[in-house]
Every structure is written in structure tokens, then in C-alpha cells.
Amino acid sequence: MLCSAKLTSPSLRSSLPPFNHSISLLKPKSCCSQSQPMQTQTQTHDGANALSFDFLTKKSYAPPSWATHLNPTPSHVFSLAHLPTPIHKWNLPNLPQNTEVYLKRDDLSGMQLSGNKVRKLEFLMAEAVAQGADCIITIGGIQSNHCRATAVAAKYLNLDSYLILRTSKVLVDQDPGLTGNLLVERFVGANIQLVSKEEYARIGSEALTNVLKEKLLKEGRRPYVIPVGGSNSLGTWGYIEAIREIEEQLQISSNGVKLDDIVVACGSGGTIAGLSLGSWLGALKAKVHAFCVCDDPDYFYDYVQGLIDGLQAGVNSRDIVSILNAAVMVGHFGYRSFQAKGLGYAMNTSEELKFVKEIATATGVVLDPVYRGKPCLSLKSCACEHDVAIIYEVLYLGQKSRPCPVSVLVSGKAAYGMMKNMGENPKKWEGRKVLFIHTGGLLGLFDKVDQMAPLVGNWQRMDVNESVPRKDGIGKMF
Ligand SMILES: Cc1ncc(COP(=O)(O)O)c(C=O)c1O
Q: Which ranges carry the Tryptophan synthase beta chain-like PALP domain (predicted)?
């Protein structure tokens, strides 16, 4: 059907069409909306004209008018996510007076691709295809949402994926199992390469991906490498675009809601780079508050600076985003969380889980899970391990102690931080309209069922009296 000439990997692939075209009933994406038209011609990655379906097609890209000065501008984007993701009011309990919280459901950006990573992948995959790649290499934790999203996106485009996944020394020689993100990765045929945390810490993500790249090149493959979390300057466009999407949603359906704040989790920095730059440059002008789940704010101010410098934005990261610590290690094994540096409060893993459970019970929204592991790494790896929802299993090997969590929630922790901050500084938030970005991560929840079991009740054997007479209804089973 389409582009089979491009297939380079053996056997099965040649019998498959390169795209799983489906009929999309979604509204047009913001980046091809009438107000900011993308070139409307829809292309598959081999250049063939496609039907007018939008999903899984490559398009030329035109940035929002307020971002045209950024450089380089991507030439193309792949439609991989289900966009726009909905925004709805989030009826959280105990908000400060007249504070309204809205939820941007990026967890609904697509089933296997769900979460924030897919927005970055739309741009990264377009570049991969433009460069003629036949496989994708990326790297992350054993339950990396980014790696799962990459594996699915690659398969949608009929590319192979190679995932370097970091796990503990005792597990590195074993089958990693099928829990959570691993199930999806293995179902879609990702090639999984396990490394120990010690190897990861010693060699670093960049060198590890290079080693694999060299090997694949020698085998005649054409790999494209995506860094941890998809957080480079190109990936940043994903959340610049998200700001355009939010702007359009507000114009269309907000009944005049003007956002004051955006709250979001930060794990590898790309999401906050795009959101804060877009909000600063565009009409939104909402203040972006990031809760970092790894390393510390200084690290992320610098990292975000690098990403936006890579786009020649000419702005200072400290002017456009406020980054708060989401978790701080106390001693070596316990940790406590902060909603802002200096405003500490004790919180342990079961409190986090309880919070996630309570939010789900109160509002129906399931945030992402806690990961917990044995501390075993150097701090250095924390800074580069930030593709969560993973285990930030970090210990400072005889170094000066620096804060880093043993376990993290990602959007769950950011929501916890926001609620705590609101509780302790109600005046700061009173009357404000806040958009919380739910960045996904639900699949990882399945890795935590044992820890969550004590938190959920609500079941019992139904009391059925044998004398109740039978009456058939719809859908009778027997
Ligand atoms: C579920 C989830 N939310 C938020 C983040 C943070 O996004 P970013 O890596 O772009 O900082 C990540 C990954 O790090 C994630 O997996």
C-alpha cells in the first residue's frame, strides 16, 4: 500500500502497511486550524498523498504567530496525539476562596501514547522520518512513560524501537516482565536492552545511546536517537504548540475564563520549557509553576535555559517559570516533600498514595503512581534520569548529601504540591484561575497494585438470598 520500499527490517514488517490509518473524528488540531493554517496537504512519511484523515499523517508546520522568531523552526510535525485534549473544571476539595482549578487532560492524549511525551514525539518523529531513520533509540527507567510512548509511536510509523531501560543490578539479567509500560512496549515489539543503574550512572544516557547507535549503524540500520524524556529543543515545540491549543480552547469555549496560573510536573524539563516559553510569548501570559520531581530547581532553570537558548528565544528561564521542589530527601532513606523550598512538611509514600486515592475518589481523576525503590545510585544520574514516572532511586555514594527522592509521583506529586501550597498560602491563590496539566503516567499504576491494595476498600460479597426468583433481563448470561 504505502512506502513498503522504505522498509529495511526483515520478514513481518514487509507484510504490514506502514501506517494504521484510521478515521479520525477529532476536531482539527490547533496547528492546522484556520486561524494559523498549516499547509493543508496531508502527507504520509513516504510523501504519498493520503486521504483526508488527520491522525498519523505528517504535515508541514507553521509556528504560532508569536513564535515565528524562534529558530530553528521545525519543518514538519506528525499527528500522533489525540488533540486537543479536553479542559474541564476540577472540583478539588478545600480550595482557597474563589480559586478555580481547571484540568488539562494530557493524560487523554491517546491510549498507548497517553501523557505529555506524545506532544514532543510529534516533532521528534517527524525529524526521524525526514532523516530516513528506520529505527528509534531512546532511554529511560524501567517504567519510563517516554519509552513506552516512543515504542508505540515508532510502531505506528513502522519503525523499530530500541529502548535502553535502566533497572536494578539484581534484575538486569532477568526477564523484565510485563507490568505497566513494559506490557505495551513488549506487545508492540520494542527491542529492550537492560542496563543496571550503576552502568547508567557510570556511562550516562548519551554515551549509552551512542553505543547502541554505533552497533546498529554497523548492522546497516539507520537509527534516530531521542534523548531522555524527549526533552531537547525540538521536543520543546510540543508544549509551545500546547499553549496555542490552550489559547484556542479558551477563545472557543471558556466563557471568558482568563487563566492566571499553569501548574505542572517537571521531570526532564521539556514540558515546562515549552509551556513557559509559549505562555510568555503568546497571549496567555499565565504564570507557570513547575514542581520538579527530581534534582532541584537550579538544575532545571539551567536545563530549561539550554532548551530555550537552543531556540534563540532570548529570554531568561527564571523570568518565565517558577520551579519548586516537589520532594526533598531527608537523610539517606526517608524523604519529605516540599511544595516550595523552605516550606517543608513531612510526607511519606503512603501519604502520596493516599492523596492520589482521595483525589480519585473525590473527582474521578486518577493521577499517576508512586514509584519506590531501593536507593542505589549517584546523584549525578538523578539529573539525567529524569524521564519518569520512574523510580528515582538515588543515593549519594559518600558524596555531599543533596536532595533527591527515593520515590516520586509525577503529576500526582505536582498536584499534591499545589494543594499543599494552596493550603499554606491561601492568600496567594485566592480568586485565581489555575490550569493544572495532567501529564499522564497511568500505566505505571499497575506496577504498584500491592502498595495500593490497603488503600482501597469498597468490596464485599453480595448478600444474595437463594429465594430471589429468577427474572431474565437484557444481556442474560445463562
Ligand atoms: C507522567 C509524567 N508526567 C510528567 C513528566 C515530566 O515531563 P518532562 O519530562 O517533560 O519534564 C513525566 C516525565 O518526566 C512523566 O512521565
A: 80-369
0.70 exceeded by the pTM?
Answer: yes
Question: Is 52 part of a structural domain of the chain?
Answer: no
Q: Tell me whether residue 78 is in a domain.
A: no
Domain ranges, residue 240: 87-111+231-452
Question: For residue 233, what is its C-alpha cell?
Answer: 529543543
Q: Is 144 noted as a catalytic residue in this protein?
A: yes
Pocket test for ligand 1, best of 228, 392, 410, 418 (most atoms within 8 A of CB): 410
> Is 235 inside any structural domain?
yes
**Cell match 500505566: residue?**
443
C-alpha to C-alpha distance for 258 and 247, rounded to whole angstroms: 10
End-to-end CA distance of the chain: 45
In a domain, 156, yes or no: no
Q: 23-74 pLDDT, tens per residue?
A: 322 233 444 333 332 333 445 444 445 456 889 999 999 999 999 999 999 9
**What's the structural domain count of the chain?**
1
**Which atom of ligand 1 is the closest one to the Cα of 440?**
1
**How confident is residue 253, by pLDDT bands cut at 50, 70 and 90?**
low
Q: Tell me the per-residue pLDDT of 203-248, one tens digit each, with 9 for 90 and over.
A: 999 999 999 999 999 999 999 999 999 999 999 999 999 999 999 9
